[in-house]
Structures are given as structure tokens and as C-alpha cells.
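User: We ran a pulldown and think these components assemble together. Before we commit to crystallization trials, I'd like a predicted model of the whole complex to look at. Sequences follow.
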Amino acid sequence: MVHEWALAEAIVLYIENQGVKRGRRLVVKTGALQSIDREVLEFALRMLIKEHGLELGEIEIVEEEPLLKCRNCGYEWRLDPSSMSQDVRESIHFLPESIYAYYRCPRCGSIDFEIVKGRGISEIRVEDHD
Amino acid sequence: MVHEWALAEAIVLYIENQGVKRGRRLVVKTGALQSIDREVLEFALRMLIKEHGLELGEIEIVEEEPLLKCRNCGYEWRLDPSSMSQDVRESIHFLPESIYAYYRCPRCGSIDFEIVKGRGISEIRVEDHD
Amino acid sequence: MIEDPRTLKAIKNLESPRSVYLVVSSKGGVGKTTVSTLLALVSSIEGHSTGLLDLDFVNPSTHIILGLDPRVIKYEEEKGVKPYMVLDNLYYFTIVSYTMDNPIALRGGDASNALWEILAIVRWNNVENLYIDTPPGIGDEHLDILYRLRRIVKPIVVATPSRLALRSIDRLVDILREMGYGEILFIENMGNGLLRSYAIEKKLIYTGFIPYISEIEESIGSIEKLLKSDLLSYVKTIYKNLRGFTRG
Amino acid sequence: MIEDPRTLKAIKNLESPRSVYLVVSSKGGVGKTTVSTLLALVSSIEGHSTGLLDLDFVNPSTHIILGLDPRVIKYEEEKGVKPYMVLDNLYYFTIVSYTMDNPIALRGGDASNALWEILAIVRWNNVENLYIDTPPGIGDEHLDILYRLRRIVKPIVVATPSRLALRSIDRLVDILREMGYGEILFIENMGNGLLRSYAIEKKLIYTGFIPYISEIEESIGSIEKLLKSDLLSYVKTIYKNLRGFTRG
Ligand SMILES: Nc1ncnc2c1ncn2[C@@H]1O[C@H](COP(=O)(O)OP(=O)(O)O)[C@@H](O)[C@H]1O
Ligand SMILES: Nc1ncnc2c1ncn2[C@@H]1O[C@H](COP(=O)(O)OP(=O)(O)O)[C@@H](O)[C@H]1O
Ligand SMILES: [Mg+2]
Ligand SMILES: [Mg+2]
Ligand SMILES: [Mg+2]
Ligand SMILES: [Mg+2]
Ligand code: NI
Ligand code: NI
Ligand SMILES: [Zn+2]
Ligand SMILES: [Zn+2]
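Assistant: Here's a predicted model for the assembly, 756 residues in total across the polymer chains.
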């Protein structure tokens, strides 16, 4: 699942673009739907941070649990990616919207639901930066 | 501009649907983009409230100023419907999304902006209801 | 607000017509707009009070087929908005009268908002058959209508006998079934009846076909010519079949 | 977050190809998918490393034209996702490999999210010409790309010589102009060159036409047949004109 590298690059480009060069700690919030391999992501981040000449100290990756909400009946539910079949999980890992091909509202069967949270990278924060 | 009647009916159906029968005060927040005629709306509301057998006491109509935000450059701006030409204002009165046919981001010219608030009815609240 | 108050008013407005047909197809260019406009024309000349509602906001074209200048389309207000009377029996609503046919690009959320506003304010009372034209694909507008107005609308799927169109229809039909639509009406456009067996296999209600008629191009923009065109007899058959299946 | 971090990575990914063509049309069924697939095929057999990206999420069909089963389309990972090699020079990405061609209906916000995810993770390095197929209309996906990737993509407008299609193209061209697109490439499909004067009048770059060829139906699903089809010489001319105009 080394496409984590691309996500790491997006994160580093983002930090750079914000004009941030150094900081004590980098906090990244990822969505559990993407089943991101934290070690791979952290490794990629360290490499890229170095490559881009940034100094960011610690890296913390926080995973956000997925929350889904039906637009038809209003029902809210959680979904544990580790309960998915390997194929489906991998599809959703790459493209969280693949979920619409495999899941329905557990209460009313609706295909019209939204990923309220836990989809992808939702926060990138550099603490004590200058 | 008596299409306010249709909006009033939507409001009354909504209250009814919530199971509310009586209350001390009805507060309705409307968006200034719709240039709603408050007197007409209030009149229609009173008629329909009676027709539907509800008792709602006072009616307060609060108008929310429009706020627009460019999705291209991030610029935020306000728009005063009274500054619009008669035709444009009337179109937006009936269908606020008509704004996309006549307005652009004042900073970058983008057609891709959003109506952050002040579009249409955004709140219907019955105070002290039972 | 828990629910959009406009939904309730929309349901009320759309409960008046005996039949509300939603013309859909996940593929563009199959003739949704042509078919919905012609069906509305036929319905009105058959003596039934008829409505035509154009919900393709980014690419409204029913007025082009009818040959109507956006500036002549005006709506009266009476406890809402009254559609424009095109013919004695034909009532029409399109946003071009508000946008003056200026180009607009709507994101999904805006399209959904525009949809509910229109459904809530435009009144179709006294209308017997209402035909709704929709944009291609299955986007916010379709999801909104197909879920919230499930007990009201009858979907009409339009398809052409091409591989790409059929593959796309397969997907749409799957979705409509999942949504709980048991009766799905079907029109074959630019075909010769070949899709009847396809429709039967998919348990769709086959209502007829319209052949490819290149002269249609010359009739576009003139109601008079459309009413005299070769297409009309085919549309009449479909119209009758639609009525037959939805007499309920 | 102020901006979507994926945008920056997307720009980086799309800066590799010499030309990134965005095939658009506010009208469906004019041949966007057919044209983008054939252009990619021609580009690859002409010996150029070529990419084909299908962004029509609700109705993906490039794989049907290419005759590819969703199950055979697999992507390798290497600092991102590497597109699937269809032919020696042809690299391809479509979501059907993730959705297994199950039908999905996306609201605008979801389509936009899927778009940025794909543009951020799929790498097009070593690709010279990239052709992007898009859904009909002007929705979230188009607005996203046309604004954020303005310095990168070259829009190709596809139109057929029908009144409805041209009216719709007028609108699209107005929008592209407002967005700051000076060079708009133009392809006439299912026509005979009649639209050259239309294109010139609208200051579009006319790159050629493809006639209506009913046999195309039989070639769909087979690269071999497509490469032998009568269409090909027309597509080759267009391909060369596109390259000529975008040599920059
Ligand atoms: N039966 C037919 N024979 C010939 N041309 C047709 C027929 N039906 C539609 N067309 C043409 O096909 C094109 C697409 O039709 P349209 O109604 O706009 O489709 P949609 O609304 O599904 O995009 C238009 O140019 C129209 O004139
Ligand atoms: N030049 C052509 N001659 C004949 N048929 C064509 C031609 N180009 C496209 N088609 C057919 O027209 C239909 C619409 O084409 P498609 O590429 O799917 O359009 P779009 O992607 O714009 O919706 C398909 O059935 C396709 O096979
Ligand atoms: Mg149409
Ligand atoms: Mg008026
Ligand atoms: Mg297509
Ligand atoms: Mg894999
Ligand atoms: Ni991965
Ligand atoms: Ni009014
Ligand atoms: Zn539900
Ligand atoms: Zn702006």
C-alpha cells in the first residue's frame, strides 16, 4: 500500500506552501476509511520533509473513525474497515468514494449517504512553527 | 411577489410535520437574497396557521444578510439586493441560484462561488411550544 | 432545521397531477429532452392539461425545441408561481426565464437547492400529466427527487440501441431497483424496436420506440413543424402506452 | 485546512505530461468518450507515451470502448498509483477497477473528493499526452479542474452539428472564456466539416471532424477493430492538429 507516499507528498507540499519551514511537531489527522499504513506514511513523511529541507521534529498521525450518515432516513453509523473483505477494503483505501459501490444505509438501504468524517486527511497542523 | 405564499405554506407544513400545534412565538429566518416581502409573508403565515388549526402567537421574521465566498480565490463579499436591477433582483427573488447568471467574484471574476448565507429560509423556530 | 421545509410543499404541489413522469438516463444525448418535450406536446394536443418542467439547469433546452425566446416566458404569481402557458393545454416551467439563458455552472449543492426551490414554488394544479426533463447522469437532482418523491414520480428511462447507452442503462436500472422502483417505464429512441427484448429481460415496461429521423433537426424550434413531423405518430403510441400502464 | 493539500500534489502529477487535454462538452452523447479514447489510441500507436484518464464516475465507459474487463485492470503502486498499461505506450486509469463497475451515484461533493484523490495519487510521469474524459455538463469536477489546473489543462470541446448541441456549446465556450481560457480546441463529431465556420466565428481552434460512421458500434470493445476502423484516419488528422496547436 505504498500509495501513502503520494499522500505524504501532498502533506509536505501543503506545509511548504503555507510558508512553514520548521516546527516542533507535525500532527496529521487521517480517516480510517483509507486504512492508511501509519508506519509507511510516517516513513514517507520523514523522507520528504528532509528532501524539502523542512525541520518538523515529531510526527503524530491521528486516525479518525468513519462516520456515515444517510441522506434518506438520517441514520448515522460507523464502519470498521477491518471488517471489510480484502478487495473492498483495498478499493476504499485508494478511493474512499468506492464505498458507494459496496455499502448501503443499514437502516433503509439507501445509496444516498454521506461520509461525515473519517474519509481522508482532514487536518495538517504544525505545532510551534515559525 | 406573492410567491411568498408558497414559502409560507412550506413553513406551516414543516411546523405541522414536527408535530407542533401551539407556541408563543414563531421565528423565521429568511435570506436577504430572496428579498422577501415580510408583510406578505407574515400575512400568508397568519392565514395558513389559522387554516391548519395552529396557534402560534407572535411572528418574527428575521432577515439574514447575504454572504458570498469565492471557491477560486477565497474572497468573501456581501451583496445588497436593493442595488440590483429590477429584473435581476426579481429573478433572484424567485430563484436565488439565478445569481450565478449575473454575478462573478469581484476579486478574480470567478463563476465558482458559494452562497454561504442569506440565501433562503434557514431557520424555523417555534418558541415555548408544547 | 431537521428537514428541508420545501420538500413538504414540493410533495403537495406534485400530488396534484395524476401522473408525474421523470425522464432519466445516466447517459447524455439519448433524447431525454426531445422525448419529454414531444410527450408533453402530444399530451396537450390530445386534450389533457399538461405540464413540462425542465430541470436541466446547466443545459436547459426544452425552450429551444419549443422555439421560445427566454424573454417571452413569464410566470404569473398566485400563491406561488404559475407555469407559462405555451398552448391551451400546455404549462411550462424552465429557469431560462430567470437566467435569461445566460450560462451557469452549478455545483451539486446549488443544483439541489435550485431544485427544491422550484418544486416548492411552482404549482401544477389542474395539470393532469407532468413531464420532467432532467440532466444526464445521476447527480444531486436525481437522488433528491428519486428518494424524496418516491411515491409520486414514475421514472421513464430513455435509451438508444448502442452498447455504451445500454451499459449505462444497466447501471441506472440497478440503482432505480435498489431505490424501490418496481415499475420502470422504458422508451427506445433512435431505434427500431430492437430493445423490446432487452426491456423485457430487464423487466422494464417497454412503451415503444422512435426511429432515427434526421429531419427532426429542421423541426426543432417550431411547435407547428414538430406536430407535423414523422416522429409524432411514434410519440403518440408511446404516450398512449404510458397512460395505459399508469392509469392506476 | 485552508486549501486542499491534494491540489498541490495533483498539479505536480499533471505537470509531467507535455499536454493534458480535457475533453469537455456541456451536452452528453456528442462523443466525448469515443473521441478521448480514440485520441489516446492514436497517440500511443504514433509512438508517444500516452495517458487516458476516465473521470466520468457515474458513467465510466472508456473501458467498454477498449474492451477491458474491470477485473483485469490493476494498478501497481510506486510512490503513488501507476496507471494500467493497456498497450506498450498506453497508460490508463479508471475507477471501475475499484468499483468493479458496480453502479454508483455521486453527489457533487463526493465527485469532487474522488477527483482530487485520483489526481493526487495517480502518477503520469513519462507520459507525453494525457487525455481526460469527463462527464456531461459542467459540474463540480469541471469547475475544480478548470479553475485549479488552469495553467495545465487544454480544453477540447466536442460538438455535433445539431442545434441543441451548438446552443449548449455556446454556453460552455462563454464559461471557458470567462475562466480565462484563450485557446479552446474544437472537434466536430458526427459531422462533415460544417462546423469549421462556426468554430472560426467563435474563435475556437478547429482541429477537424469525424463523420457519422454507424459501423463504429461493431468496433466498440476491440482495440484491434478500432485501429482498423474508418474513423481512424479522421482521428489521426485531429491528433496531428492538436499537437500542432499545442506544441508550445
Ligand atoms: N429520434 C431521433 N432522431 C433523430 N435525432 C434525434 C432523435 N431524438 C433526438 N435526436 C437528436 O439527438 C440529440 C440529442 O437529443 P436530446 O433530446 O438533446 O438528448 P438528451 O436530452 O438526452 O441529451 C439532439 O440533437 C436531438 O435533436
Ligand atoms: N463519429 C461517430 N459515428 C457514429 N457514432 C458515434 C460517433 N461518435 C460517437 N458515436 C456514438 O455515439 C454515442 C455517444 O458517444 P459517447 O462517446 O459515449 O459520447 P459522450 O461521452 O459525449 O456521452 C455512442 O453510442 C457512440 O458509439
Ligand atoms: Mg437533455
Ligand atoms: Mg414576475
Ligand atoms: Mg462519455
Ligand atoms: Mg493494489
Ligand atoms: Ni496504499
Ligand atoms: Ni414573490
Ligand atoms: Zn437510510
Ligand atoms: Zn475569486
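Residues 163-178 of chain C form the longest helix (16 residues). That may be worth checking against your pulldown data before setting up trials.

User: Thanks, that helps.
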